[in-house]
Amino acid sequence: MSVRIDELDRKILGCLQVDASRSLDEIATEVGSSKTPVWNRIRKMREAGIITSQTVTLDAEALGFDACFYVLIRTSEHEQDWQKRFLEALNARPEVQEAHRLAGDIDYILKVRVPNARAYDAFYQALISEVKIHNVTALLSMEEIKSTTALPL
């Protein structure tokens, strides 16, 4: 299902990206519309898959996840069976917040959130015990300068 979005839809999406817990009345007021058209537009964008979910953002450090590692993975394996096992291993690990397959010298990059370096090592040991990996480089983020899930609408 393809849906065209206009400027009002973009305003609604912008409001939702900032705080999806706001009431329809608040969003409608901010975007200069009324409640029913805003609700109908949100419903249509959900049905079209533009809005995929609503979540809350948690403070990782406040919850004890002080270490964020970016893990660069090179593999010499590119068979379908290996890829399936690799994806299953990643999906089974809640520490992996993001995983991307890349073009270039690095095959995959992972964003891994853990309490500390020892927890990262446990993650790493478990991962390499499940799938053969040619080379792994872990980069510890010293400071998060910017982090957002908001798209530039």
In round numbers, the mean pLDDT is 96
Oligomeric organization of the protein chains: single chain
- What fold name stands as the CATH topology of the largest domain? Alpha-Beta Plaits
Cα Rg: 20 Å
Beta content: 15-25%
Taken from the alpha-carbon principal axes, the silhouette is: elongated
The span between the termini is 21 Å
Helix content: 25-40%
Determine the structural class based on helices, strands and strand pairing: alpha+beta
Q: What is the tally of helical segments?
A: 5
User: How many domains make up the 3D coordinates?
Assistant: 2
Strand order of the largest sheet: 2-3-1-4
SS elements, strand count: 4
CATH classification class of the largest domain: Alpha Beta
The CATH homologous superfamily of the largest domain is called Lrp/AsnC effector binding domain/regulation of amino acid metabolism (RAM) domain
Order of helices and strands: HHHEHEEHE
**pLDDT under 50 segments (min length 5)?**
none
CATH architecture of the largest domain: 2-Layer Sandwich
The largest sheet is: 4 strands, antiparallel
